[in-house]
Amino acid sequence: MFAQPSTSKLISLVAAIAVGVLVGLVALLLGGCGARTSDAGSPGTPGSTARSANALLVGADDLPAGFAASAGQASTYRQQVCGVDLEPTKPVQTASARFSQGPLGPFVEQRVRVYDDDSATDVLADLREALKTCGSYDLPASGSSAAVRVAVQPLDVPQLGDESVAWRQAPDTQLPITTDVVLIRSGRTVALVTSYALKQAPDAATATQAATAAADLLHG
């Protein structure tokens, strides 16, 4: 899992990126049904794991001191980053969680996806290659919100899981919200971890700690 010149535009941006990948400001602070959401899918679906996607979510104890469960995460993160579709096929299981240190953050969100194909392998390979030369991408217009350019740069995070890719992004707006994003793959399961705050840039160490904990759960 970004501010904009207008409230509606801010809502659209944060909803689209949350890592990053964007959750609306109103949704961030007021929405959601709980700190964790899950769609277990069919347990017999080929490619699913023995554990449910919900069992792969980190907890507040895995994060820096002061984080607590917080409602408001968006369930989806499908979008294109530097021309790469982050979720080209439908997962068979999903789960998500959100944590905060206060109403303005910092925030940490995690989304888990389990697939019955190997599309996640291509996503990480394509994204890693794209980020070598991509300095920005355009978030298309949606509803009443105009298109926005989002600046990106690689984020120095240790390799996690079978493979991982990390970047920092911020929209070209009056009040940009910077988001650190880490995408981790283990087999056919993916964890997307985002870290951001509404009034300051995130601490990269927070994303690293959260992503490391997420990778440990994927590996276990």
From TrEMBL:
This is Sensor domain-containing protein. It comes from the Bacteria.
